[in-house]
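Whiteboard transcription, Tuesday session. T.W. wrote the structure tokens on the left side:
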């Protein structure tokens, strides 16, 4: 799934790579300030390290999805090994939503996973993890590329910290001013 119902003026905000005690907590505070719910695609290894942060995401009413146990690239693994890594993560995450790290997934892996998971990709990715991009560039892209049903990817990781914490409030302000509502994936 790349995009949701285009008849509704709704954004599906997602976060990848967490949970992270430093960044996820700050992202949650921003979302609370704007009264927005999102979907967090979590890395199983991070959930095992930071179960309290993971539980806080759920406690605040956000949806969670699986992002593999070790944030592995699908093209580098057999379908069996990839599925095993996803299942290992699911032992911690317990979600039928799955997003492949880097958007990289083989057809054989899709075939193996689609009976148990809804595979979620994105309408656009903010590239907030890229140190060469400034928050203002992200906000500009949000304004240019947002449309009904957009699935938007930010990251709650240390690599994205500066950009997500600075661009997210501006994006949320824009979406609210434009009359978008926010959906969570299920």
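and on the right, the sequence the group agreed on:
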């Amino acid at each position: 799934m790349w995009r949701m119902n285009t008849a509704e003026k709704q954004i599906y905000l997602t976060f990848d790579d967490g949970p992270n005690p430093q960044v996820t907590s700050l992202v949650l505070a921003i979302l609370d300030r704007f009264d927005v719910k999102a979907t967090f695609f979590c890395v199983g290894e991070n959930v095992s390290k930071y179960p309290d942060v993971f539980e806080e995401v759920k406690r605040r009413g956000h949806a969670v999805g699986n992002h593999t146990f070790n944030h592995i690239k699908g093209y580098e693994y057999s379908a069996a090994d990839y599925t095993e890594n996803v299942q290992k993560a699911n032992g911690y995450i317990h979600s039928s939503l799955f997003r492949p790290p880097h958007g990289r997934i083989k057809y054989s892996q899709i075939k193996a996973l689609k009976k148990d998971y809804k595979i979620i990709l994105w309408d656009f990715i903010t590239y907030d993890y890229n140190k060469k991009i400034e928050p203002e560039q992200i906000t500009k892209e949000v304004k240019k590329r947002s449309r009904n049903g957009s699935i938007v990817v930010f990251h709650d990781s240390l690599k994205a910290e500066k950009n997500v914490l600075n661009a997210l409030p501006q994006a949320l302000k824009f979406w609210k001013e434009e009359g978008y509502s926010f959906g969570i994936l299920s």
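Someone added at the bottom: The chain has one domain: 10-182.
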